[in-house]
Structures are given as structure tokens and as C-alpha cells.
Amino acid sequence: MDDPNITMEEYIQLMADKARGRDQTFNWETATYGEVYCEDLDSFTDFETDFLAIVYNDASTSNQNVSSEPSFDYIPKKLEEEYHSIKDDTLLVSVYTTGKVTMKGMLIPDNLITNEIRDTQAYKKLRIIWRMMIENMMRFMKSTILSLSLHKTAKITKEQENMAAVKEKILEEDVENIIEGVIRTIQKKLMMMMRRKRMRKNKRRIEKMQALIPSPIRSPRKDLYSHKTITQELTVFVSPTPATSSQRRSKSISKKYTYITEDLRRICRRQDFMLQHMQKKYVTNRDFQDIKEKVDVVLHEIVPKIASNITNDLINDNLPRIIANAVKKERESSQAIVPALIS
């Protein structure tokens, strides 16, 4: 549109005639553009809009029709606002429009827009719509950026809170592990102390038991009996006595004859119960109870027999000598008294 006197309708009719002269089809449809060049942003912006455009079909024959709208031979003199843009499904070769847009990646040059086009109401309205679209787009971009920044800030805050919670949880677990370790150590030390205390108590008890059974100096009379075997001691005849008297006698004998403990040691040694082992080894309550029962059996059954045997030995060995001494003393005294009576 180099001629300023030509109108828009005449220019469109001229372009249609040129197209028919080149055996091309001229179409009038609704055009939707996905990218529009923005001077303020100096880049292409993605959005959809409809405005005035002329599209040439790159067909080889003039008989080809458009799929959406039928072709026609003339352009109406009055352009309706409802049909202010066109499109073609085939390859686009050249485009004329009232704004800076790209069609299939091709930028529309500014020299195609003349002053007459700029003075038209459609162009002015389009410029207003264009500015409103740019403002809305910028406002939308700002709101989008703000929402993204707020979302990112909220996400960062949530992540920081999660990290703080994780660190606090780890710290609590570490403190619990330390406390459990200290408690375990204290429990082990207390168990060791209680074990040592129990061992010292058992050791004192064993020493006290050993102190209750001293080893006295053996007498010659006892030496005579120590050479006898256990079988001889058990087979010696003992005169039967009542049960009450035997129990009373066993108690009195166990207190009177302290050298019986040596016989008990010998019996225990023969039965593999040595007091030395009791000093060196730890004795449990059950073992100690068994030993106590065996000692009780020895004291209540074997000791009375031993006491009876010792009594019989004393009677058999010493009674004739005592009687002889008594008779001798009586004879001497009678020899001193008889001459006095005679004289």
C-alpha cells in the first residue's frame, strides 16, 4: 500500500486480483496466531488472538478450495468485525496484518502498515486491545512470578521446618542412646559390686564355719583310737539305750569331746568333702545345703556311734586299772588300820 489514496477495500481487491492472476487461491477465514512479537519485551509471546490478515495459498492450481471456508471471487466492500482474520490449513507464503505478529515463524515487517491503516478504527481498536493484552499478560506474569515465589518460599520454609524437626529427632535419639549407655554402665557396676559383696559374705561365712570346728591337739588316748578304721568304729558293739538318752548323750558328747572334729575331718576327707576346697571354690546355696545335710547326718548318726565306741573303749581300758588302784589303796589303808586295832 504505497499509494496513500487507496482504501483498504481496494487494496484487498487488488491483492485478490493479483492472486488470481498468479493462479493462486485467495481465502478469507479466521486466523489464530500462537506467537506474537512484543516490542517492550523484545521477544515472542505465546497467546491466541484474532485480527486482520490476508493469506495466500501456495497451491499449483487455482481450482483448489479451502477446507473450512469456500473460496469466493470478490471481497466485500465493507469489512465486518466478525471476519477480520483469515487462515489456511496449507503452507503460508506471505501474510499482511495490522500488528507485529509471526506466522509460521515469519515476522511481519512494519513498512506494510501505512498511515491509512493506522487511521482506521479497526487498527486503533486493535492497538487498544493489544495494549490491554500486553498489560494483562504482564500482570499475569507478575502474579505468576509472585505465586511461584510464595510457593517456593513456603516450600523452603516447610523444608527448613522438616530439617529442624529431623535434627531435633536425631538429637533426641543421641541423648537417649547416651542415657541408655550410662544406665547400662551403672547397672553393670552395681551388679559387679553386688557380686563381690556376695562373694565376700560367703567367704566370711565359710571362715566362720571353719572357726567353729577347730583342730585341737591330739591326746595319746585319742591316738590309740585314730589308728582304727571306720569299719571298726561302726562295728563296735554299743549297748542299746533309749532314744531320748542317746539324743541327750550325743549332744553332751559333741560339746565335751572336741577332738571328735578331727574324726569328722577325716570322714569328710574320705568322702571327698575337704574344707580346703570349700575355701578355694565358690559354693552355691544348694551345694552348701547338701553339705549341711550330710554334716547333720554325720553329727546325729555317726557321732553318737563314735561316742559310744569311745565310751566303751574308756570303760574297757581304764576301768580295770581304776578298780585295781582303788583296791590297792583300800588294802594299804586297811593294813595301817588293822595293826592299830590289834594293839
UniProtKB/TrEMBL annotation:
Domain of life from the UniProt record: Eukaryota
Stated name of the protein: Uncharacterized protein
Biological classification of the source: Eukaryota, Viridiplantae, Streptophyta, Embryophyta, Tracheophyta
